[in-house]
Amino acid sequence: MASPVDQELETLIRARYPIIYIVSWEEKRVEDTLREIAQNRSKKVFVWTITQGMLGASNVAVNQATRDPISALDFVLMSTEPAIFILKDYHTFLNDSVVVRRLRDLTTALKTTYKTLIILSPILKLPAELEKDITVIDYYLPTIEELGELLDGVVRSVKENPQIEIDLAPEMREQILKAAQGLTANEAENVFAKSLVEKRKFDVEVILTEKEQIIRKSGILEYFPGIENISNVGGLEILKEWVEKRVQAFTDKARQFGLPEPKGILLLGVQGCGKSLAAKSIASVWKLPLIRLDVGKIFSGIVGSSEENMRRAITMSESIAPCILWIDEIEKGFAGTQSSPFSDGGTTSRVFGSFITWLQEKTAPVFVVSTANEVNILPPEMLRKGRFDDIFFVDLPSERERREIFEIHLRKRKRDPAQFDIKRLAGGSDGFSGAEIEQAIIAALYEAFDQGRDLTTDDILGALKQSIPLSQTMREKIDSLRRWAADRARPASAPPTARRAKTKKAESDGQEEAPEASEALLPVREPSPAVEPQP
Question: What DSSP element (H or E) covers 61?
Answer without folding.
Answer: strand 61-63
